[in-house]
Inverse folding.
């Protein structure tokens, strides 16, 4: 296995991790901004107010995106298994 193949697999795996985490991070960002705006408008400065809605929103987005995330991970794993004969040479 050449160093180029290792770099290629590493970069593909990092891209996959970023792609899979994007829905949850995006939802957490939007919910966080919405809660911050709500806190600024109402002048409520409770630090624990941000955690529960964010956790709920991230879990909901994870449940919604789970089939797509699983499909992406399975596809990547199949590509890795198909590359094994080429790596042995």
């Amino acid at each position: 296995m050449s160093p180029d193949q290792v770099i290629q697999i590493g970069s593909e795996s990092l891209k996959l991790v970023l792609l899979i985490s994007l829905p949850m991070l995006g939802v957490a960002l939007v919910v966080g901004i919405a809660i911050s705006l709500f806190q600024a408008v109402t002048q409520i400065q409770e630090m624990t107010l941000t955690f529960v809605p964010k956790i709920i929103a991230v879990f909901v987005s994870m449940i919604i995106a789970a089939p797509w995330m699983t499909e992406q991970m399975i596809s990547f794993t199949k590509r890795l298994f198909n590359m094994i004969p080429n790596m042995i040479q």
